[in-house]
Amino acid sequence: MFKVEDASETEFNKAKKERGSDLIQDTLKIRKNNNQLHLSLSNASTKEVVLKDTLADIFDNSDFRRYTYLGQFPKINQYLIENHLYEDYKCLLINKKSGKITQIGGRPSLSPDGTYLININAAGGMGDEPIGFQIWEIKPDASLIKKIYEFDQFEWYPLDCTWQNDRTAIIKIISMKSPDYPNMYEKKSSKDFMYKKLIFN
Questions:
Q1: Dihedral (C-alpha) 186, 191, 193, 194: value to the nearest 10 degrees?
Q2: Helix (H, G, I), strand (E, B) or coil at 87
Q3: Domain containing 83: what range?
Q4: Interatomic CA distance for residues 39 and 50, integer angstroms
Q5: What predicted TM-score, i.e. pTM, was given to this entire model?
Q6: Does the pLDDT value for residue 169 go beyond 80?
Q7: What torsion, rounded to 10 degrees, do the Cα atoms 36, 37, 42, 43 define?
Q8: Residue 169 belongs to what H/E stretch?
Q9: Number of independent structural domains in the chain
Q10: Pairing of strands 48-52, 65-73
């Protein structure tokens, strides 16, 4: 499926700068109305997907649910939605033609050719929850987004991911034992940051 090799901070930063993002953040085009998101579809039978917030201001209730439109990936014809839940967090990929919803563990990073995406499991790493990432394979017409790998553990925390090319992703991680771990997002650099390449077959 893929092999893992060490990478450098220089390689990661160079790939991050050159790669950019495939997400079109056209958040002004889709606004919430009466706590509802209306996402139009390009098929004759179903005109839209509607996502409705519940208990919008009551965060400590198990029925709490809030949706935020983040943008779209034209390359794979998917909307990206942020979904805050009670003690949980997910993202939704919604096919702009069929309306099919794929739930993933966090914001995705798409390979340049649109064949794979990787997401960090954003709700992990707290308390007894493991932390890791998911890898998804995308069919050429984006009719199917299939999870092909998930890795969760308690040793290190994934901070970011980018793509070097169509078949090579680089993940930035830090050991949970590092003194910089509690303030990891405030650090621009740390001797404890590590970088791993995932090289797909």
A1: 170
A2: coil
A3: 2-200
A4: 6
A5: 0.89
A6: yes
A7: -30
A8: strand 168-175
A9: 1
A10: unpaired
